[in-house]
Amino acid sequence: MYQRDGVWTFSIHGVLVYVRELPRNNITVFHHICSPVRELVEPVCRGRGYWRSEHKNWLVFEQFKGIVLEDLGRLALG
User: Fold this and answer.
1) What's the predicted TM-score (pTM) here?
2) Alpha helices of 1-78 — where are they, by DSSP H?
3) Where do the H-state alpha helices sit in 5-64?
4) Local confidence band at 44 (pLDDT 50, 70, 90 cut-offs)
């Protein structure tokens, strides 16, 4: 995991997953199209925010930010 200025980057199965903090402390989670990574990331985000199809990313609510970052960190470790 790499973190700088409200942006976290995780490598999951060699695919970069980007998490960006928004002004209201919600976060967005984005990765390029990769089905195996989607199968791991989607359950982490589902129920903790919603899919924004116009931006092709997840918006995760502030109260779940810590757990989502922890879960993504665990996935990045393998």
Assistant:
1) 0.93
2) 35-45, 65-77
3) 35-45
4) very high
